[in-house]
Amino acid sequence: MTDQEDVIRCEGIWKIFGDKSRQAMEAVRRDGLSKKDIREKFDCVVGVQDASFSVGRGEIFCIMGLSGSGKSTLIRHINRLIEPTSGAVFIEGQNVNAMNPEALRRLRAEKIGMVFQSMALMPHRTVRDNVAFSLEVRGVAEAERARVAARAIDMVDLTGWDRKYPDELSGGMQQRVGLARALAADPTILLMDEPFSALDPLIRRQLQGTFMELSAELHKTTVFITHDLDEAIRIGDRIAIMKDGVLVQIGTPEEIVTRPADDYVADFVAGISKLDLVTAARIMQPLAAYVQAHGPQDTSAWPVGKPGCKLNELVDLAVGTDHPILIAADGAAVGVVTKRALLRGIQGRDEERAA
Amino acid sequence: MADTAFDWLNPFASVDLGIATWADGIKQWAISNRELIQPIKRFFETVIVGIEHALQSIPPLVMLAILVLIAWQAAGRRGAIVVGICLGILGLLAPEAWGLAMTTLAIVTASVILCVAIGLPLGVLAGKNDRFEAIIRPVLDTMQTIPAFVYLVPVVMMIGIGNVSGVIVTIIFALPPLVRLTSLGIRGVNPSVVEAARAFGASPGQILRKVELPLATPTILAGLNQTIMLSLSMVVIASMISVKGLGNEVLRAMGRLDAGKAIVGGLGIVMLAIVLDRITQGLGRSGRDRGHLMWWQTGPVGLITALFKKQT
């Protein structure tokens, strides 16, 4: 969404697991072997295959895929919990893979916060000490730690629980602690590895709400992993669909839903309601084409919408009249949405723009 | 080597690689290098004698009270009662039993301290490194299963009889469980918690100190408990190389077929074992079992701090 500089840039990330991953990588470069060939010839498994993407400042970038698609492997390359077999990750222009251990640790503690599906809280530490962990490893003084932890705990509405231990908290509260821990050091980047997948639906919605409020307030550059397309659409500015280690498509939620790159993505988005996603600009017919087909029209009685109107709003406009909807931008009419186009849009099929 | 009439069906009888003779060379080497060992020996002898003097100089009733308080702190009220009763029985077994028990306790303490100093780093290393674990495992198996009498002779040849040799043979036998269980504890730490620590910028040393060791503590303490129990079981064998204490009592009673004295010595060892077991098992309880109270919030120390708080 943002046109500003890229905070995270991944270039051609390959991750091949196995003892002979180096040779396998060579073979891929030379002969372009398929995943199956690599498994048979080298006994190696391809986790991530040539993934490139960048995330702008303040953007929420969702990576969506089913389990085993390599999304958790991919996100761990960003803070180098996993070394890529090939390719590199740049954070604010710095090559993460070229950093020495000390610089890498500073990057992890100060610039990147991570939230895990399994929460991964330390059971022998209180909520407060869990939240302040990244400051503690940087040698921040006790008083400062207490102050920062209290603020982070307050952000996730857990004030008063700071002396408790993780096993005394419910699952939803534990993940709030996980979120507070990630936010404590006020990092630039948030990595969320399926943070809400292990929670029951009601708690999940609640936490998504908390996260989105915080996100709107703090503007963290976020990479958010999920297997739930609804979640990805609700949260993400852009979505990347991942399948078998490959980024199949990257785009805004609307692009993904209306123009799926292949059958796999199409299957995924088939069940998604387009009402709050697809805009008039996507389904409208240019005014000139409409006039050409139907002759000059008196549009004074027609309802008027904007190109940015969602289908839901268009439906509201359409029910009060028998006329098509005129789409106007900056006072000038640009297109027409007929009832037919609207219905097709809700269905998710492109109305053939018959001339 | 295979001289006359090599039998294919029984090749072993006609082959002699001379391993026993070769191994006897170790003994010879030990004897000829005795002088190197003596300063080290004297140092450890002083430490052991120091511990023993300290334990002997405390009046029995005071010592009993101290041990009961330690047990109360570590294992709670029930543990303290068991420890008190066992120590009472130990003292009443025979007039000299308490003094002998303190001598044995000194040897066991010295052995266990050295076991921890050696075993904990080895265990951590084995927990971290698969290759090291693969190398050390057969060594530990050997240490645990080889009959004590086999290494008794070379140790005595090299160091001479006495407490230091007693401690060494005890360490050989008692060390393995601590190494094994430390390794097991480190390996048992939830990998996702370690990953999280890494993701927040912890160095390998910090991960070990702040995450792995604390989480492995219950398992490590179970290993410590086993090490203490095994060192107690070595006191009779150690007494063969002139280590004093309860074990010596049993050994002498065996020589004279004096069942009564053997029972006194044996029961003494058992009582000591129960006392040490209760205390160390209590230490192994996790914070969760104690209702997430810190150790200074429970037991006698907790009582005192609570009193102190009320006054201020």
From TrEMBL, chain A:
Q: Which residues cross the membrane?
A: none
Q: Where is the ABC transporter domain?
A: 28-269
Name this protein carries in UniProt? Quaternary amine transport ATP-binding protein
Q: Which InterPro entries match?
A: AAA+_ATPase (IPR003593), ABC_osmolyte_uptake_ATP-bind (IPR051921), ABC_transporter-like_ATP-bd (IPR003439), ABC_transporter-like_CS (IPR017871), Gly-betaine_transp_ATP-bd (IPR005892), P-loop_NTPase (IPR027417)
Family the entry assigns: Belongs to the ABC transporter superfamily.
Q: Where is the protein localized?
A: Cell inner membrane
| Classification via Pfam families | ABC_tran (PF00005)
Q: Which UniProt keywords apply?
A: ATP-binding, Cell inner membrane, Cell membrane, Membrane, Nucleotide-binding, Transport
One GO CC term of this entry? plasma membrane
Q: Which GO terms describe its biological process?
A: amino acid transport; glycine betaine transport; response to osmotic stress
The kind of enzyme this is, by top-level EC class, is: translocase
Subunit structure, briefly?
The complex is probably composed of two ATP-binding proteins (TmoW), two transmembrane proteins (TmoV) and a solute-binding protein (TmoX). The complex is probably composed of two ATP-binding proteins, two transmembrane proteins and a solute-binding protein.
What is the originating organism of this protein?
Paragemmobacter kunshanensis
How does the protein's chain sit in the membrane according to the entry?
A: Peripheral membrane protein
Q: Which PROSITE patterns match?
A: ABC_TRANSPORTER_1 (PS00211), ABC_TRANSPORTER_2 (PS50893)
Q: Report the superkingdom from the record.
A: Bacteria
EC id? 7.6.2.9
Q: What Gene Ontology terms describe what this protein does at the molecular function level?
A: ABC-type quaternary ammonium compound transporting activity; ATP binding; ATP hydrolysis activity
Catalytic activity line of the entry: a quaternary ammonium(out) + ATP + H2O = a quaternary ammonium(in) + ADP + phosphate + H(+)
Its principal location? Answer: membrane
Report the CDD domains cross-referenced here: ABC_Pro_Gly_Betaine
Automatic annotation (TrEMBL), chain B:
Name its GO BP terms in alphabetical order: choline transport; glycine betaine transport
Q: Does the keyword Secreted apply?
A: no
Give the transmembrane ranges: 54-72, 79-98, 104-127, 148-175, 220-241, 262-280, 292-308
Domain ABC transmembrane type-1, by residue range, is: 101-280
Membrane topology per the entry is:
Multi-pass membrane protein
Query: One GO cellular component from the entry?
Result: ATP-binding cassette (ABC) transporter complex
Q: Does the keyword Nucleus apply?
A: no
Keywords associated with the record: Cell membrane, Membrane, Transmembrane, Transmembrane helix, Transport
- Give the record's family classification: Belongs to the binding-protein-dependent transport system permease family.
Q: What is this protein called?
A: ABC transporter permease subunit
Give the species this sequence originates from.
Paragemmobacter kunshanensis
What taxonomic lineage is listed for the species of origin? Bacteria, Pseudomonadati, Pseudomonadota, Alphaproteobacteria, Rhodobacterales
